[in-house]
Design a protein that fits this description.
By secondary structure, the protein is of the alpha/beta class. It has seven helices and eleven strands. The chain has two domains: 33 residues; 197 residues, Spore Coat Polysaccharide Biosynthesis Protein SpsA, Chain A (Alpha-Beta Complex), CATH 3.90.550. It has a seven-stranded mixed beta sheet with strand order 3-2-1-4-9-6-10, sandwiched between helices. The protein has a two-stranded antiparallel sheet with strand order 5-11.
Amino acid sequence: MREKVSISLDKEILEKADATVDGIAVRNRSQAIEHALRAYFGSSGVEKAFVLLGRSRNIKEAHLNHLIGMAKSVGVKEILIAGGPNNEKIFQILGSGSKYGIKVDYVEEKELKGTAGSIWLAKNMLDSTFLVIAGDTSFTFDLIKMVEFHKSKGSMVTMGVTAVKLEDSTDSIILEGEKVVHFNYQDKKPTYMTNAGVYLFEPEIFRHMPSKGSLEKDVFPGLAKEGKLYAYVFYREWKHNE
């Protein structure tokens, strides 16, 4: 629950807070101050993020910076990436992550293992709540609110879900309350709701995840049937980059 407060701050502090407002991850002064406080107190409980690259070769640095900024907005300190030779250009751009103010670690993926298999490679490094972002997505919704939702539900998996035009949808998603009860990827009869490619996981997910396979085909459909897949629905800007 949020409460409105009135406080007085030094002008220099406010100027530093305003400098972090980018209109994307941090939209205004109030959110900038909240993010700074959360980072100081470490209240989000999400310190690691996994970025799914797949076959991506030419993701622009500006887009990588956007994804890193979104991850940092919830206090993420380390980003994990699985990839191989086809991702070398991206690895060169990111390096150690020092120029972005974050640590970047790499997990070798000698052959494409699918979205689930990529994350599986890093399972020994993911021992607390972690964020997963598809590298081909752009979004501006408040990730902090998604984390709060995930924690409040005691969820093992929370999927970001948004509404799109029917012709732009590839998924069949049926919701009951706050849960996804039906999920089918690349369905012949898609719905207006689509998977946004942004997720929060607890480590228990590895009991349900194959060492090679797809989240969309091999994990989410079963979790939906079992009532173990929560949906965080948002209506802010979102885009799947081809």
